[in-house]
Amino acid sequence: MAVYKGPVKDISFVLNEVLDVASLAKLPGYEDATPDTIQAILEEAAKLCENVLFPLNRTGDEEGCHYENGVVRTPKGFKEAYDQFREGGWTAVTCDPEYGGQGLPATVGFALTEMFTASNQAFAMYPGLSHGAYEALSRHGSDALKKLYLPKLTDGTWSGTMCLTEPHCGTDLGMLRTRAEPQPDGSYSITGTKIFISAGEHDLTENILHLVLARPEGAPGGTRGISLFLVPKFLPKADGSVGERNGIRCGAIEHKMGIKANATCVMNLDGAKGWLVGELNKGMNAMFVMMNAARLGVGMQGLGIAEASRQSALAYAQDRLQGRSLTGPKNAAGPADPIIVHPDVRRMLLTQKSFTEAARALALWVGMLIDEAHRHPDAARREAADDLIQMLTPIIKAYFTDMGSECANLAVQTYGGHGFIRENGVEQLVRDARITQLYEGTNGIQALDLVGRKLPMKGGAAAQRLLGLMSGFVAEHKNDDKLKEFVEPLEKALGRVQDAAFFLLQNAMKNPDEAGAAATDLLRLMALTAMSYMWARIAIAAHKGLAAGTDNAFYEAKLATARFFTARVLPQTTSLNHQIKAGAATLMALPAEAF
Predict the structure, then answer these.
(1) CA-CA distance, 53 to 76, in Å (whole number)?
(2) Cα(86)–Cα(80) distance, integer angstroms
(3) Of 68, 111, 276, 367, which sits most exposed with the smallest number of CB within 10 A?
(4) Set 217, 440, 476, 491: catalytic member
């Protein structure tokens, strides 16, 4: 059976020994975010995940959501779990105290998101989407909208969605047809159809707030004419309670490959009343707040799935007896050895372990950068942090979800034939993980965003900031004998990134297809290099831990895993660089009709 325990010890190690989370309490407004407070929150979240959310993961998948006449019911136990989640204050952790939130750092939210999504991805999407709506509204909503809606999103009595996709347009939002007509009272009448709307209709909250992209009358074509509107399921009364039903309804729910306990809806708007969020015709600016938060959140889903897969595969490998070790029996008293003795099983387990541990460090570092970008008193520090966030967002979304899917498949492979059987739980991880590579912009779109937007951003200054940070780390530590085995390969990987970037600089202006052909490989190349950087930082913390002599087995395991990544995963950067420099010709030469 699939298993899950909140990895509190590993999260705490990253926060306290790799990243110095205590520094967050020095930022204005985060004085209460001490390591002890964060530790207590993590421990309580782990209990919730293990005892409430994870037991509902398989049953929710088996039952799925139920749709009848526009009404959606979530699986048995979800409403009670959501009430417990909300009453425990988990919807309010990183929200502003002005609206009833706890005001804790984004870093804490990242750690919690990993555990929530690992234990029950479909459930975690409901409050996760609500928090994205909270972020967009808090940044771009009018004071009146914030005063009315943010407290309800904070306490979780109301939830939120993002409504972008339409039947004829997905990524190309400039083609959308949903229209908005201004009304005398300052609201808009909105009509159109949106599809693939996660959590668009359900029975967990008393109201659902939809953030809808639409084109006002007379607006320019393309994305320049798009505006963002807040469209509640029920119109609020003057006292803030729910009133009459608005003109937005669920027309159907999708029958999906995975995340079956989360309702993916077709939403029909027929003269629905909505209110402008942000400036007219600048809806993409406001929606990108929610989309970027969602992209990082989806990346955390990839990490969560990978961790759940790793734990399940490890438990099975330690318990399943099959064959004998190639170097002689390790379980002489039994009929066979546990499969963890076999090199290929260890390859699969270490691939999962080497991904999850460095990915966790990278994600929590980005969380700390977000907190710095929002709260640091020095404007230059805020700008530097934001540059790094911009560069790392497509990497985290695409690489983490690719690897989440790979780790889920490795779990099935570790189980062998038993992994293919539903009752053992790991095939669900494969199905649930697959959507993460598609939504919030497919991973190919993320790669194009990295190459087409992020690398040229600020004349390449943001990219140089990231690469320069890692190069500075190499220069600082390359003469440390204990770290050479990690730092020297990192330096070579950085050289390959620079070599590939130079190739694009030389060729992409002459032939834009070169950028498109290189994009996915370059994203993976940069992701592996960033992971190598995090493993080197983890190695520093592990050596310090060994010097203290408190938990030698724990720290030795970190170093052993770092060596596996460096020797067996990081060398992929060589082939990726060769693939990039092979150019676009072999991709584009074959005529479309010849495929």
Answers:
(1) 12
(2) 10
(3) 68
(4) 440
CA distances from 324 to 314, 334, 388, 418, 565 (A): 18, 10, 48, 20, 26
Which ranges of 64-210 does DSSP label H, i.e. alpha helix?
A: 78-87, 106-119, 121-140, 143-155
Indicate the residue type of 93.
Answer: V
Whole-number Å distance between alpha carbons of 113 and 510: 43
Residue 111, judged by CB atoms within 10 A of its CB (0-12, 13-18, 19+), counts as buried
Q: Which percentage of the chain shows pLDDT scores above 90?
A: 92
pTM for this one?
0.97
**Residues 378, 362: Cα–Cα separation, whole Å:** 23
What are the backbone angles phi and psi of residue 567, rounded to the nearest 5°? -85, -30
440 is catalytic: yes
558 vs 17, 43, 300, 344, CA distance in Å?
12, 22, 21, 20
Tens digit of each residue's pLDDT (9 = 90 or more) over 145-199: 999 999 999 999 999 999 999 998 867 777 899 999 999 999 999 999 999 999 9
**Strand pairing of 179-182 and 207-216?**
parallel
Cβ-Cβ contacts under 8 Å for 424 (sequence gap 6 or more): 1, 2, 415, 418
pLDDT tens profile 265-320? 999 999 999 999 999 998 888 777 778 888 999 999 999 999 999 999 999 999 99
Tokens linked to 410: 């490795």
How many angstroms from the chain centroid is the CA of residue 500?
Answer: 26
SS3 227: strand
Ranges assigned E (strand) in 285-385: none
